[in-house]
Amino acid sequence: MHDDQKKSATEPNREIPELASPLLDLRERGPNALAPPPQALGIWELAWPTIVASALQTLVRWADFMMVGDLGVEAVAGVGAAGQIYWMIQTLVMALSTGLVAILARAVGAGDFREADSALRQSILLGTVFGLISWLVILPFLGPTIGILGVTDEVIAFGSDYLFWLLIGNVPLTVGFIFAAGLRAAGDARVPLYIGIAANLMNLFFNWVLIYGNLGAPALGVAGAGMASAIAMFIQLGIYWVLWSHGKLILKPLLTGFRFDKIMSRRILHIGYPASIEGIGFQVGILSFMALMSTFGTAEFTAYQIGVQILALSFLAGNGFSIAASTLVGQHLGADNPDDAMRSGWRSLVISMLMMGVLGAALIAMAPMLASWFIDDVNVIALTVDFIWILGLAQPLMAIEFVMGGALRGAGDTRFPVFAIFTGLFVFRVLPAMIIVYYFGGSIQWVWSVLLLDYLVKGVLLAERFRRGYWKDIQV
């Protein structure tokens, strides 16, 4: 470990320049404060910028689906399949972001700002390496990778075009995601929102240009949608980098360079690798579930993809409160206030369940209209409505998984969520779905209904783990 990093392991460094974050109240803590104390950060204050940022990302995904919808059901299915594969690749980043949040949130709570900077730098370094490796490994096997879903050759062709360009933007997306996770763990959820707005607007603009061939550009269709996403990711990373390197973010560049720090990297990966295993396992389970749906036909597969995109408006609320719970639990533990950490987790859960329940009900009510925005195939619309009804009822249960999982990870308890997710996904979702399909020959609606059982089991397991409080004694 370098000399300046050794110092962070023994004593906090509070010589921090004045900050520009709108979240800070410097009058109470003086000019050397990095972030407000945990008790000054409200759950909603942390959650709403993430919810809005996620909503904008969801709208961009909607735009991808809607704009390629004119090319037919196979094009929509290709975009959905490629997106699923791409997010499976991104599960490697979960190891970094989860470890970063747990370490950085506690460092901020304890006032150890060099520790926070060291964790951010090592995560950026590791993220760049992970992004390059995953890009190089998957790129030669685009078609076979999408083909594991059991989709048609035409869907594979569309999906390969889309996935190729998503992979081009893999490294900037990875590093940008790490910047956003670090800022939220430090208590600033607004800057990631503002930068996300800029990136999403660029994505929509280049969608319009490259999918349809406007402003003299060639009409690239599905490939244009992927290219637009890649361009937006490069722009987003550029903004983060300029602001951070010039000291304009809540996280200041206190150290110099990006030298590999074996100890910090090991800490990040030790905390985060279960989250990566969880993410990979989750994606494998989802892909297995999708493969079962593909046995019914392209219409059912496409309906699932569209339904998930619509219900993502409800998921994003859970994601926002998950990040709020993770930040507050981590910072309270860093400030040696485990009881406040417990209260923050439960309060985040109650608000999230109420909000996701209301959103789920609203999406159920608007299901036919929303489905028709994506595609004009009557059969696919009817199937999408059925799916929205089923998963819409599961929204309060999903809130438990989001928030309790986030709270445990913020405390550094990253291993139990792996057990809970695997149990729900494989034992209570994939296995019953296989029995329904291959033993009973049941309908797609019965397959989708096992989602309710999956989320119920995961919710009970995670809530009980949080209630027992083992996470209070975990050292990160």
Strand and helix map with partners:
Layout: H1 3-10, H2 26-29, H3 43-69, H4 73-89, H5 91-110, H6 113-138, H7 142-147, H8 153-168, H9 170-185, H10 190-212, H11 222-245, H12 262-294, H13 298-334, H14 338-365, H15 367-374, H16 378-392, H17 395-410, H18 416-440, H19 444-468
Notable features of this structure?
476 residues, mainly alpha, 79% helix, globular, disordered N terminus
Explain this structure.
The chain has 476 residues and is mainly α. It has one domain. It is 79% helix and 0% strand. It has 19 helices and no strands. The protein has helices at residues 3-10, 26-29, 43-69, 73-89, 91-110, 113-138, 142-147, 153-168, 170-185, 190-212, 222-245, 262-294, 298-334, 338-365, 367-374, 378-392, 395-410, 416-440, 444-468. Helix 5 runs parallel beside helix 13 and helix 13 (298-334) packs parallel to helix 17. The chain is globular, with a radius of gyration of 22 Å. The model is unreliable at 1-40 (pLDDT under 50).
The average pLDDT is: 85
In angstroms, what is the radius of gyration? 22 Å
What is the percentage of strand-forming residues?
Answer: under 5%
Number of domains: 1
Helix count equals 19
Low-confidence stretches: 1-40
Helix content: over 70%
What's the N-to-C terminus distance?
17 Å
- The secondary-structure element order is HHHHHHHHHHHHHHHHHHH
What general outline do the C-alpha atoms trace?
Answer: globular
User: Main sheet, how many strands, which sense, barrel?
Assistant: none
Query: What's the total number of strands?
Result: 0
SS-derived structural category: mainly alpha
